[in-house]
Protein: Nitrogen fixation protein FixH
Organism: Anoxybacillus gonensis
Amino acid sequence: MSKKLLLLFGSLTFIVLLGILYYTFMYKETFESSAEGLFLPEQYEEKYRVFEATIEVNKIKYEKLHIDHRIDLKGGSLAYELYDPKGNIIDRGEVTATQPLNKQLNMTPQKGVWRAKYYTNKDTDGKYILLLKSIE
């Protein structure tokens, strides 16, 4: 009887360990994607003054989605808005050459297209980077 009990206990332990290993290495996902670009005054056109950057998140099996948003301007200014896939504004503000943006946010993972809108003017000169990555 004790051999059967020992065999049963050993089998259950093995199954639990396999489940833990599966969850740790296979079930959890990682995600990282970025969008970056330049704002150049010599390429400014009024009809394109609102610029949009998008990142599609297609994996959500992790704890948090880390957003790193940086805007560094040499001249001019701009306003920005950051949207989640449901269309909710999660961050907004204004950036100038003397006040760059370096913001980090931790959000609940959501599948879909995350968007950043940049409202530029003829003097806007600089660059942006928007990075989304998973946090375990």
Observations:
- The chain is about 20% helix and 50% strand.
- The first helix runs from residue 2 to 27.
- The beta strands are 32-39, 50-57, 64-75, 77-83, 89-96, 101-107, 112-119, 125-135.
- The helical segments are 2-27.
